[in-house]
Amino acid sequence: MLSLTPRIDPTIQSLLDDHDYLGELLDALGSPLAVVLPQRLQKNVTAFRETFRRHHLSGRLYYAHKANRSSALLRELAAGDIGVDVASLGELQHALGAGFTPDRIVATGPKSREFLWLAARAGVTVSADSYDELAELAGIVAGHRLPRVPVTLRLSGFASAGVRVLTRRSRFGSPVGELADLLDLLEKRADHLELTGVAYHLDTIGLPEKAVALESCLAALDECRARGLRPRSLDIGGGFGVNYLAEGAEWDRWTSELGQAVLGRRAPMTWENHGYGLRAENGTLRGSLAVYPAYRPVAGAAYLDRLLGTPAPERGRPLGELLLDHMYDLDVEPGRALLDQCGLVLARVTSVAGDRVGLDLNARDVSLEEHGVLMDPVVVPRGGDRRAGPAGVYLFGNLCLESDLITRRKVHLPVVPRPGDLLAFVNTAGYFMDFSATHALHQPIARKVAVYRSGGKRRWCLDEQYWPVHTRQEVP
Amino acid sequence: MRHDDITEAIGNTPLVRIDPAVHGLANIDLYAKLELLNPFGSVKDRAAWHMARPLLAGAKPGDTVVELSSGNTAKALALLAGMHGLPFTSVTNRMKVPEIKELLLLLGAQIDELPGRSECLDPTDTDDPLARMHRQLASSGSGYLHTDQYFNERNVDAHVHGTGPEIVKDLDGRAPDWFVACVGTAGSSTGVARVLRQHNPDVEVVGLVAEKGDFIPGIRTIDEVHEVGLFDPDVYDTMAAVTADDAIDGLLTLSRRCGILTGPTGGAAFVGAVRRLRAVDATLTSRKSCVFIVCDRIESYLSYVRDRRPELFGRPPRRNSTGTLTDAELHAAPAIGVEAAQRWLGETDALVVDLRNPYAYQALHIAGSINLVDEVFADLLHAGLPFSRRRPVLMVCPVGEKSARYAALLRRMGHPDVHSLAGGIIAWRDAGAELVRD
Q: Which residue numbers delimit the Rhodanese domain (chain B) (predicted)?
């Protein structure tokens, strides 16, 4: 069997076991349906805190809002003590409206003039991507007579000594070589801008690249101090990853077999023998597998732990110890990793014919394929017995479009579904839920509900109706 | 034997019989082809020289030799390029063997490590860094001399004209009944197999690969061999997997009992060969022979072995180490808060020892303190107290954890007046106490 069984924790499992509950939700709210589990967030927050504690580090956790538009998740986090990383004017408004105070918000990403103004007006920390952005912000602060705005400098283009560690080019951040110019500007605009730290964010799972960046940023922070500034923190962004699969052996087997299928040595396991980046040339496998490493034994807080234990390429000491030595706080911005196991997407099966299963949702409603994450959905049968599987099937979406396959991979289900059954795409809260959903063809976008426990009972409400004020928690 | 240059010393390596008492086979003579005795230390010397020779002959000043290699091919090419006054660049996913990395840097090579996989993946972007690199190398006038070891037929050729015939000659004109080789670029196994089959079509060729997820330097995994252009599954009668454990077991046996200083690849070949032969040995009625390749030398893999078998490097525990402290000793470590410490420093001539790294110390520290990085301090303590018992000491680290351990150790070593700064220099800073840069 070539199953890729998802990792499912008890909260989601208990929900999946309640077929009638999910069936009724879908009957009432339509297919597809997104479910978020705000109360599950705490476990992930605690895991990150535990890693901080183990390395004796202080600093702040910022939830990268872009991973999910949900209000319920945001409000739940606002009720706790972590911060939020907002990357648009809309996200900033959302965060302020959810109850985040400005000292718990950092503004990142491309910034319009309006975004900069609201950030400055509210007094949130602005992570500046360039000299020009910093100058524009200072101009806004001066022009509107606003108080000094806390800023961090996002840096990029780090160079390694000895071995040249190559990194993808980034759109974001100022070249580290231009730090002196940025500091000149900060000195000149000291009445308007207050440096609180430096930041980097690399889109890679590679530790060596991050180690080079982190060590370079420490040197940059020391340079800031030498100039008389008082930076507090190093923000290392996100990218800690999630482990999606229950078993490494399944992942190993599937990826090995895919190579064989592409070489024509076994039956195809994907639609039209799609190679996910691999191709055959004269009997040799070329290209590289362009999928997310769905089985990642070291992910999330454990990945952060590994990073902090990695020796700095120059100074040799573990990066976590260097941060401590230099007395800097560590700020992190996990998105996907904070949302691990915090949601799922449900869809109704509309047709079953041979190895083809039609669903009332499309590839944009659960954008696993777009992000290269491969895992099997879970069948939620509605009444009656199902023919025992395993069933290898292709999942077709509801768009009148040849390319609308939920995944080009043949998925494997333990039982053969029937029309009317539900398929659950679990662990999809981070980036796969609403990131790409569209109204194309007048198909509905999934409604989103929050499922939570209050007073010992499972309850649900529409996402926008959720506030973390459950009567039982309050002490009269 | 006189040579005009070192490349003439490549090849003509000895074929050495392994003592039957070591391998325990009754009916089979097992021979090791000692490629580790090539001048640069490995079987790759042959392929590197054979591939590079025509490129170097046509090289223009300023050209760069480049290869995707994190091991022996890179080493050989770095030396060959250097002999021709050209730079060498090694492109690699990750240099996993630190000794080789250091050696390449020492030889003047540039090492480019490719970026890791993207976290926010775009699966439509199949333009992976490696593909981009290949395109860049292939474009004409790029100034790159790319030896392309995984696809270059001259890699195989080197063994068709060298290694293969040498084995046949040393076996008095006969091919062995088995030939066992680890598959890296598939160059040596393919080339040797071709020659041996011309002499004996019945020779059984055993290709060894690593298990998925395992790592043996120079051996591809079961998946990775399919990415090798020179790899043709039909070359091998049998493919078998070996593990890092096998490789180290073999390395130990050949080194300790046969005087052959092999690296892990040769060790894996030995274990793979014996495993295959044991299955048939008892059924044989006539004398047979088998040859395996010892690819390279042991010295580059000390840390590889140490990571996996630390006990092989076991030393007696060192004196005066914080690792030997008991919980009771740790609890008894005298700690002092920031305010009390400030008073105490004012009243005594206590020595303040800052255990942090020198850069952090130089950026900000307690006035009058000295910097002894914890690793250095630990080394000093093995020999004894590095300061007088009469001088009070305040130990300082970031949060007061390490300093407490050292305070406990110093106390055990007989220092009467040592304190650890509770909460460390971070508490000191947070209390608003003075920090200086000098």
A: 346-437
